[in-house]
Amino acid sequence: MDAGNLSVVSEFVLLGLCHSWTMQILLLLMFFMLYLIIVFGNIAIIILIITDPHLHSPMYFLLANLSFVDMWLCSVTTPKMITDFVRENKTISFGGCMCQILFVHFFGGGEMVLLVVMAYDRYVAICKPLHYSTIMNLQKCIGLVLTSWTTGFVHAMSQMAVIVQLPFCGPREIYSFFCDIPLVIKLACIDSYNLGILMNADSGVPAMTCFIVLLISYSYILLTIRQSSKAGTSRALSTCTAHITVVVLFFGPCIFIYVWPLSITWVDKFLAVFYSVITPLLNPAIYTLRNKEIKTAIKRFRSYYIHHKGNI
Protein backbone atom coordinates (compact mmCIF):
# COMPACT_ATOMS: atom_id res chain seq x y z
CA MET A 1 0.00 0.00 0.00
CA ASP A 2 1.31 3.43 -0.92
CA ALA A 3 2.16 5.39 2.24
CA GLY A 4 1.09 8.60 0.52
CA ASN A 5 -2.48 7.33 0.20
CA LEU A 6 -2.81 6.50 3.92
CA SER A 7 -5.13 8.68 6.02
CA VAL A 8 -4.15 8.99 9.64
CA VAL A 9 -6.75 7.77 12.16
CA SER A 10 -7.35 10.46 14.78
CA GLU A 11 -9.95 8.52 16.78
CA PHE A 12 -11.28 5.02 17.27
CA VAL A 13 -14.84 3.76 17.66
CA LEU A 14 -15.55 1.60 20.71
CA LEU A 15 -18.37 -0.83 19.89
CA GLY A 16 -18.94 -1.48 23.59
CA LEU A 17 -20.61 -4.48 25.22
CA CYS A 18 -23.92 -4.54 23.37
CA HIS A 19 -26.14 -2.62 20.93
CA SER A 20 -29.52 -2.82 22.68
CA TRP A 21 -30.49 0.58 24.14
CA THR A 22 -32.48 -1.02 26.98
CA MET A 23 -29.59 -3.31 27.87
CA GLN A 24 -27.17 -0.37 27.79
CA ILE A 25 -29.29 1.55 30.32
CA LEU A 26 -29.37 -1.48 32.63
CA LEU A 27 -25.60 -1.92 32.28
CA LEU A 28 -25.07 1.79 32.93
CA LEU A 29 -26.93 1.58 36.25
CA MET A 30 -25.18 -1.65 37.23
CA PHE A 31 -21.64 -0.53 36.39
CA PHE A 32 -22.19 2.90 37.92
CA MET A 33 -23.15 1.30 41.23
CA LEU A 34 -20.26 -1.18 41.00
CA TYR A 35 -17.80 1.63 40.27
CA LEU A 36 -18.96 3.61 43.29
CA ILE A 37 -18.61 0.51 45.49
CA ILE A 38 -15.10 -0.15 44.12
CA VAL A 39 -13.88 3.41 44.65
CA PHE A 40 -15.38 3.97 48.10
CA GLY A 41 -14.63 0.41 49.23
CA ASN A 42 -10.95 0.65 48.35
CA ILE A 43 -10.66 4.17 49.76
CA ALA A 44 -12.24 2.93 53.01
CA ILE A 45 -9.68 0.11 53.25
CA ILE A 46 -6.79 2.52 52.66
CA ILE A 47 -8.08 5.00 55.27
CA LEU A 48 -8.73 2.21 57.78
CA ILE A 49 -5.21 0.80 57.39
CA ILE A 50 -3.62 4.25 57.67
CA THR A 51 -5.61 5.36 60.73
CA ASP A 52 -5.65 2.11 62.76
CA PRO A 53 -2.29 1.46 64.51
CA HIS A 54 -3.19 -2.24 64.87
CA LEU A 55 -3.01 -2.57 61.08
CA HIS A 56 0.43 -0.99 60.71
CA SER A 57 2.09 -4.20 59.58
CA PRO A 58 3.68 -5.31 56.27
CA MET A 59 0.67 -7.38 55.19
CA TYR A 60 -1.75 -4.47 55.54
CA PHE A 61 0.73 -2.01 54.04
CA LEU A 62 0.77 -4.22 50.94
CA LEU A 63 -3.02 -4.59 51.07
CA ALA A 64 -3.42 -0.79 51.09
CA ASN A 65 -1.23 -0.60 48.00
CA LEU A 66 -3.30 -3.33 46.32
CA SER A 67 -6.49 -1.37 47.02
CA PHE A 68 -4.88 1.76 45.57
CA VAL A 69 -3.85 -0.08 42.38
CA ASP A 70 -7.26 -1.76 42.02
CA MET A 71 -9.04 1.57 42.35
CA TRP A 72 -6.99 3.15 39.56
CA LEU A 73 -7.05 0.06 37.34
CA CYS A 74 -10.83 0.22 37.38
CA SER A 75 -10.85 4.01 36.87
CA VAL A 76 -8.85 3.76 33.64
CA THR A 77 -11.68 2.03 31.76
CA THR A 78 -14.96 2.05 33.71
CA PRO A 79 -15.89 5.78 33.68
CA LYS A 80 -15.44 5.88 29.90
CA MET A 81 -17.54 2.73 29.53
CA ILE A 82 -20.31 4.22 31.71
CA THR A 83 -20.50 7.48 29.77
CA ASP A 84 -20.46 5.62 26.44
CA PHE A 85 -23.68 3.82 27.42
CA VAL A 86 -25.57 7.12 26.89
CA ARG A 87 -23.63 8.26 23.84
CA GLU A 88 -24.57 7.44 20.28
CA ASN A 89 -21.02 7.98 18.98
CA LYS A 90 -18.75 5.92 21.21
CA THR A 91 -15.44 7.35 20.05
CA ILE A 92 -12.09 7.77 21.75
CA SER A 93 -9.24 9.94 20.51
CA PHE A 94 -5.98 8.38 19.43
CA GLY A 95 -4.26 9.96 22.45
CA GLY A 96 -7.00 8.74 24.79
CA CYS A 97 -6.68 5.23 23.37
CA MET A 98 -2.92 5.24 23.89
CA CYS A 99 -3.40 6.49 27.48
CA GLN A 100 -5.80 3.64 28.23
CA ILE A 101 -3.27 1.10 26.95
CA LEU A 102 -0.48 2.77 28.95
CA PHE A 103 -2.31 2.89 32.27
CA VAL A 104 -4.05 -0.50 31.97
CA HIS A 105 -0.66 -2.19 31.52
CA PHE A 106 1.02 0.08 34.07
CA PHE A 107 -1.44 -0.76 36.86
CA GLY A 108 -2.00 -4.33 35.63
CA GLY A 109 1.73 -5.09 35.46
CA GLY A 110 2.27 -3.48 38.85
CA GLU A 111 -0.52 -5.55 40.41
CA MET A 112 1.01 -8.78 39.09
CA VAL A 113 4.27 -8.08 40.88
CA LEU A 114 2.47 -6.77 43.97
CA LEU A 115 0.58 -10.07 44.30
CA VAL A 116 3.92 -11.89 44.13
CA VAL A 117 5.23 -9.57 46.87
CA MET A 118 2.18 -10.35 49.02
CA ALA A 119 2.83 -14.07 48.54
CA TYR A 120 6.45 -13.51 49.62
CA ASP A 121 5.19 -11.70 52.73
CA ARG A 122 2.97 -14.68 53.62
CA TYR A 123 5.84 -17.08 52.91
CA VAL A 124 8.11 -15.27 55.37
CA ALA A 125 5.32 -14.94 57.97
CA ILE A 126 4.40 -18.64 57.88
CA CYS A 127 7.66 -20.37 56.97
CA LYS A 128 10.10 -18.08 58.82
CA PRO A 129 8.04 -16.51 61.61
CA LEU A 130 11.00 -15.86 63.94
CA HIS A 131 12.73 -13.74 61.29
CA TYR A 132 9.60 -12.02 59.96
CA SER A 133 10.10 -8.64 61.64
CA THR A 134 13.71 -8.54 60.50
CA ILE A 135 13.09 -9.57 56.88
CA MET A 136 9.85 -7.64 56.28
CA ASN A 137 10.86 -4.31 57.77
CA LEU A 138 9.44 -0.99 56.54
CA GLN A 139 12.39 -0.26 54.26
CA LYS A 140 12.06 -3.69 52.62
CA CYS A 141 8.31 -3.26 52.13
CA ILE A 142 8.72 0.16 50.52
CA GLY A 143 11.44 -1.23 48.25
CA LEU A 144 9.23 -4.14 47.16
CA VAL A 145 6.27 -1.84 46.44
CA LEU A 146 8.50 0.51 44.43
CA THR A 147 9.74 -2.53 42.51
CA SER A 148 6.16 -3.43 41.59
CA TRP A 149 5.46 0.12 40.39
CA THR A 150 8.72 0.24 38.44
CA THR A 151 8.04 -3.11 36.80
CA GLY A 152 4.56 -1.98 35.77
CA PHE A 153 5.96 1.24 34.32
CA VAL A 154 8.71 -0.51 32.35
CA HIS A 155 6.22 -3.07 31.03
CA ALA A 156 3.76 -0.37 29.94
CA MET A 157 6.46 1.74 28.26
CA SER A 158 7.79 -1.29 26.37
CA GLN A 159 4.30 -1.72 24.92
CA MET A 160 3.83 1.96 24.12
CA ALA A 161 7.19 2.24 22.38
CA VAL A 162 5.84 -0.11 19.70
CA ILE A 163 2.15 0.81 19.55
CA VAL A 164 2.54 4.58 19.03
CA GLN A 165 4.72 4.01 15.97
CA LEU A 166 2.21 1.81 14.12
CA PRO A 167 0.41 3.29 11.10
CA PHE A 168 -3.39 3.44 11.47
CA CYS A 169 -5.41 4.25 8.37
CA GLY A 170 -8.65 2.35 8.96
CA PRO A 171 -10.70 0.42 9.90
CA ARG A 172 -11.02 2.07 13.30
CA GLU A 173 -13.65 -0.01 15.12
CA ILE A 174 -12.59 -1.71 18.37
CA TYR A 175 -14.78 -4.63 19.47
CA SER A 176 -14.65 -3.78 23.17
CA PHE A 177 -15.35 -0.99 25.64
CA PHE A 178 -11.72 0.13 25.95
CA CYS A 179 -8.47 0.07 24.01
CA ASP A 180 -6.24 -2.93 24.52
CA ILE A 181 -3.18 -4.07 22.63
CA PRO A 182 -4.52 -7.21 20.86
CA LEU A 183 -7.49 -5.23 19.52
CA VAL A 184 -5.58 -2.11 18.48
CA ILE A 185 -2.79 -4.00 16.73
CA LYS A 186 -5.37 -5.63 14.42
CA LEU A 187 -6.28 -2.14 13.12
CA ALA A 188 -2.72 -1.27 12.05
CA CYS A 189 -2.13 -0.91 8.30
CA ILE A 190 0.57 -3.57 8.29
CA ASP A 191 0.78 -7.34 8.52
CA SER A 192 0.41 -7.45 12.30
CA TYR A 193 0.25 -11.21 12.92
CA ASN A 194 3.85 -11.65 14.11
CA LEU A 195 3.78 -8.32 15.94
CA GLY A 196 0.58 -9.36 17.70
CA ILE A 197 2.22 -12.57 18.91
CA LEU A 198 5.24 -10.62 20.14
CA MET A 199 3.17 -8.01 21.98
CA ASN A 200 0.88 -10.64 23.51
CA ALA A 201 3.98 -12.51 24.67
CA ASP A 202 5.20 -9.29 26.30
CA SER A 203 2.08 -9.44 28.49
CA GLY A 204 1.46 -13.18 28.56
CA VAL A 205 4.94 -14.34 29.56
CA PRO A 206 5.17 -12.06 32.67
CA ALA A 207 1.61 -13.06 33.62
CA MET A 208 2.38 -16.78 33.28
CA THR A 209 5.70 -16.38 35.11
CA CYS A 210 4.10 -14.55 38.06
CA PHE A 211 1.22 -17.04 38.13
CA ILE A 212 3.57 -20.06 38.22
CA VAL A 213 5.73 -18.43 40.90
CA LEU A 214 2.60 -17.77 42.96
CA LEU A 215 1.37 -21.33 42.59
CA ILE A 216 4.74 -22.69 43.70
CA SER A 217 4.90 -20.24 46.62
CA TYR A 218 1.44 -21.03 47.93
CA SER A 219 1.96 -24.76 47.44
CA TYR A 220 5.07 -24.54 49.62
CA ILE A 221 3.21 -22.40 52.15
CA LEU A 222 0.31 -24.89 52.32
CA LEU A 223 2.75 -27.76 52.87
CA THR A 224 4.31 -25.79 55.72
CA ILE A 225 0.88 -25.05 57.19
CA ARG A 226 0.10 -28.75 57.43
CA GLN A 227 2.97 -29.13 59.89
CA SER A 228 1.81 -26.22 62.07
CA SER A 229 -0.41 -26.27 65.15
CA LYS A 230 -4.15 -26.56 64.63
CA ALA A 231 -4.90 -22.96 65.67
CA GLY A 232 -2.14 -21.56 63.52
CA THR A 233 -3.19 -23.74 60.60
CA SER A 234 -6.73 -22.42 60.62
CA ARG A 235 -5.71 -18.76 60.54
CA ALA A 236 -2.90 -19.18 58.02
CA LEU A 237 -5.08 -21.34 55.77
CA SER A 238 -7.83 -18.71 55.82
CA THR A 239 -5.38 -15.97 54.82
CA CYS A 240 -3.77 -18.05 52.08
CA THR A 241 -7.14 -19.12 50.70
CA ALA A 242 -8.10 -15.45 50.31
CA HIS A 243 -4.81 -14.69 48.55
CA ILE A 244 -5.11 -17.70 46.22
CA THR A 245 -8.65 -16.67 45.29
CA VAL A 246 -7.45 -13.19 44.33
CA VAL A 247 -4.58 -14.65 42.30
CA VAL A 248 -6.83 -16.97 40.30
CA LEU A 249 -9.45 -14.27 39.68
CA PHE A 250 -6.83 -11.77 38.47
CA PHE A 251 -4.47 -13.97 36.47
CA GLY A 252 -7.09 -16.27 34.91
CA PRO A 253 -8.63 -13.67 32.54
CA CYS A 254 -5.24 -12.05 31.79
CA ILE A 255 -3.66 -15.36 30.77
CA PHE A 256 -6.68 -16.29 28.64
CA ILE A 257 -6.64 -12.96 26.77
CA TYR A 258 -2.89 -12.74 26.15
CA VAL A 259 -1.83 -16.39 25.97
CA TRP A 260 -4.81 -18.29 24.55
CA PRO A 261 -4.37 -18.48 20.74
CA LEU A 262 -8.09 -18.23 19.91
CA SER A 263 -9.97 -14.92 20.05
CA ILE A 264 -13.71 -15.09 20.75
CA THR A 265 -15.19 -11.58 20.90
CA TRP A 266 -17.88 -12.12 23.55
CA VAL A 267 -15.52 -14.15 25.74
CA ASP A 268 -12.81 -11.49 25.49
CA LYS A 269 -15.35 -8.80 26.42
CA PHE A 270 -16.53 -10.79 29.43
CA LEU A 271 -12.96 -11.39 30.63
CA ALA A 272 -12.05 -7.73 30.07
CA VAL A 273 -15.00 -6.73 32.28
CA PHE A 274 -13.92 -9.34 34.81
CA TYR A 275 -10.35 -8.17 35.39
CA SER A 276 -11.08 -4.43 35.00
CA VAL A 277 -14.28 -4.26 37.10
CA ILE A 278 -15.13 -7.49 38.90
CA THR A 279 -11.65 -8.23 40.29
CA PRO A 280 -11.20 -4.73 41.82
CA LEU A 281 -14.65 -5.23 43.34
CA LEU A 282 -13.94 -8.68 44.77
CA ASN A 283 -10.46 -7.93 46.15
CA PRO A 284 -11.68 -5.65 48.98
CA ALA A 285 -14.54 -8.04 49.77
CA ILE A 286 -12.27 -11.11 49.87
CA TYR A 287 -9.60 -9.44 52.01
CA THR A 288 -12.04 -7.77 54.43
CA LEU A 289 -14.88 -10.27 54.82
CA ARG A 290 -12.45 -13.14 55.51
CA ASN A 291 -10.10 -11.14 57.74
CA LYS A 292 -10.82 -10.96 61.47
CA GLU A 293 -8.34 -8.12 62.10
CA ILE A 294 -10.00 -5.95 59.44
CA LYS A 295 -13.44 -6.71 60.91
CA THR A 296 -12.18 -5.79 64.37
CA ALA A 297 -10.64 -2.57 63.03
CA ILE A 298 -13.98 -1.64 61.44
CA LYS A 299 -15.73 -2.19 64.78
CA ARG A 300 -13.12 -0.04 66.55
CA PHE A 301 -13.54 2.70 63.97
CA ARG A 302 -17.34 2.54 64.29
CA SER A 303 -17.19 2.65 68.10
CA TYR A 304 -14.78 5.57 68.01
CA TYR A 305 -17.00 7.45 65.56
CA ILE A 306 -20.17 6.83 67.61
CA HIS A 307 -18.39 7.81 70.86
CA HIS A 308 -16.90 10.91 69.29
CA LYS A 309 -20.27 11.90 67.78
CA GLY A 310 -22.00 11.33 71.14
CA ASN A 311 -19.58 13.67 72.91
CA ILE A 312 -20.33 16.42 70.42
UniProtKB/TrEMBL annotation:
Gene Ontology terms, MF aspect: G protein-coupled receptor activity; olfactory receptor activity
Segments forming a coiled coil: none
One Pfam assignment: 7tm_4
Keywords of the record: Cell membrane, Disulfide bond, G-protein coupled receptor, Membrane, Olfaction, Receptor, Sensory transduction, Transducer, Transmembrane, Transmembrane helix
KW Disulfide bond (keyword) present: yes
Keyword Protein transport: no
A Gene Ontology cellular-component term: plasma membrane
Principal localisation: membrane
Membrane topology of this protein: Multi-pass membrane protein
Superkingdom of source: Eukaryota
Residue ranges of every copy of the G-protein coupled receptors family 1 profile domain listed in the record: 41-287
Biological role: Putative odorant or sperm cell receptor.
Protein name: Olfactory receptor
Organism of provenance: Bos indicus x Bos taurus (Hybrid cattle)
